[in-house]
Fold these 3 entries.
Entry 1:
Amino acid sequence: MSTIPRKGISDNMEELAIEPHGIFWQEEFITPEHEKDLIRIFRDELEWPDRNGRISIHYGYTFDYKTFGVDPNIPFKEFPDWLEPLIPTQEGRPPEQVCLQHYPPGAGIPPHVDTHSTYDQLYSLSIGAPVVMQFRRGDRRVDVDLKPRSMMKMSGDSRLHWTHSIKKRKTDVDGDGVVRQREDRWSITYRWLRPGAECECGNVEHCDTAQKRVGIEREYRWKQHEASDESPVPEEAVAKNG
């Protein structure tokens, strides 16, 4: 398996001046040359699931797509050499769960919030083509254009109180109003386990800890969010980065 040094990587993130609050952003987390090397590894050296649409490979603990937490039945998988230089350093320790995903043109991900009690911070590195991610809370919609080689951190409101999603479609409209064809994209999502496995945000709509404290037992499933995604979408706000 190929090894890529950390040369050219920097960790300088700034919070976007938008709502939801808590989105931190860094342009060019890696160089274009590094990105090309990673795409070669993704295409030529990794074994991907044999199915259509968005596909994933997990490192560390495995993300559970039924509960949005950790799958307790799958052993911890060590990080490969190519991944080590890409680990964000701001948290002071490595993440416990990393998910590499491939989005072919037209693929998306339903609106969801990662399980509060399981995970704390969430980072995402975009590789390949750009794509628009939508944050949603009630009737509010905010689009963020995820540019190639950019690193995004979701914390606070953006992590806990807004869902995030990528719509299934073949085109996006960027912050300048230009229609853009989608192409192959990869993302690396980094998750840190929450100490104590309890969240104190109190949001009964999204927080599993808050739900349990009021007697609500609910397992998050993709179909619940896919159904909610059919609701009419009001006027959107578009965040332009850079």
Note: Residues 155 and 224 are 23 Å apart (CA to CA).
Entry 2:
Amino acid sequence: ANMSIVDDAEYKNALHSCWSIETDFAKWFPDEIAEWIQYQSTILGVAQPYLSIPLLVAVSYCSHQCSVTAGANHTEPLILYGLVVGRSGTNKSAALHKILDIVKSIEVSESHTFESGTMEGLLVAMRENEESILAVYDEFSSFYDSLDKGTAGKCEKSRFLTLYNGKPWSKKTKTNGTMEIDSPRYNMLAFTQPSYAVQFAKTNTSDGFYQRFLLSVPKERFVKFNDKRECLNNKKELLDLESVIKRIYEAAETKWSWSLLMRPTGFMNSYTMK
């Protein structure tokens, strides 16, 4: 994609504007999960959205073909594109792999994740994994820059625009003939640098690609060693999040429909068979 140059003044203004936005992540989750995020973020020395955004995307992936009913006549496929922004040296990779390790602990015959490859490779991976995949990019630029490779670059970007809606996907391939997926669930999780995020935002608003991302640019957090040690010494009995994620994955295989009702203090979930 054609990424415009961002000067220093624009970069600093964008970064500090984002840092000024306070996100009360605790309202997104039940108390037990919020406590797990708070503890792990302290041990890793990272901002809490470094874990909360990946966790939301991971749950979305583990929900398979579930849908979300938000209101009487509005239903959406449960699909998230998560993008977390942080500068180098803020331990982004450790936070990413903390959540990925939980997902990968779920035993399946094929891989849960897709990290690089062609559109045909993505289609094959999704077909082999019950039409679902968790695309993971430790650096978002490696994904976005690849959309301009070859003559099919623009077509590929349009595919990721439509995958967000969970619509059927059919593609003629050289090696596998015509391949089809009835209900694709492509969830994306990525981290990137602030300067790249600013460029991405400037060049992708007209087609709605930028608006599809659950974007977080949290203020950096640096935890002193003594604070980490104190947290370890005072460790409480935390929720077994690995078991929770596994139960969501197994329950979603029966294709539940999730109805989300907004309340002032957060979300209340109700579940009905689809």
Note: The longest helix spans residues 31-44.
Entry 3:
Amino acid sequence: YRQPATVRSTIHRMIRLPERANLTRYRGLCHVLRGLAADSQALIFANTTKEALAIARHPAVEGLGVKPLHSEMPQSQRDWLLNSFRGRRIRFLVTTDLLSRGIDLPGLQYVILFRPPEDPTAYVHRAGRTGRAGDEGEVITLYDKSDWPMMQKIMETTKQNFENSSLPTEEELRSHAYAAVATEILSVPSNSWKCLEAIARDLVTEGKAREVLARVVSLLNTDAQLQPKKSKVSLYSGVPDFTAVLISDFDHTLYPSVEALQSRVPCPLERVRKAEAGWVADVANSNVDYLMKSGVVE
């Protein structure tokens, strides 16, 4: 007796990018990511390593914490990133077909294709990262007019029913963000807010309860916070979207070479140079936070 194959519950969705000069593919991706459920994760596929890095470093996407994983980084970095993603310490991971096969990501809700792959078979493998073992999943493909012939080939090859969708509007994204804040407010444990009840009573004067609550939600999630962080310029090299870091190693025994340094840090370093106090390098802004948490940089 053979067990029946597990039925996958996967939605295949395609979003055509509007032909507007001020809406790039990167900003389209930003809209999609901001519109996902607050507790969800997404694996983003790019067609090349160069494109994956460009996505993670782009100002429109940078503030969302998208981390790149590709074949040109040391295996130790790849393992760290993948384990962090599995452990839900990273929400958005952008990669190439390096992760399209043989990688199990239980419970992954979303797979997003920055653009259609060059081979319809690659779509099948990428889409297979979600909706596994009966879990629900969704595959979202961004495309424009020039991508349509490949989208047709993918639909013919996969025999899947693709839903046509549009990008969420700014108003929808704002409502989505405010709803997430409201949920977070209601989840605060009582031992954190009981001591503030007296202040709350003073604020909530007659007929003002709704107004005060609306002000609180607005304060916690302003329009400025809804937008990705602005790009920075490295003080070391002047390159946009990078931050200069100093990795202390006074006698250069911890990291005797650039290769040794790269193998020990959890993210790629650019323009590495030996200095008297250690090593100076550029780090993509999207990687700075977890580089600091790693303890390598003080």
Note: The two ends are 60 Å apart (CA to CA).
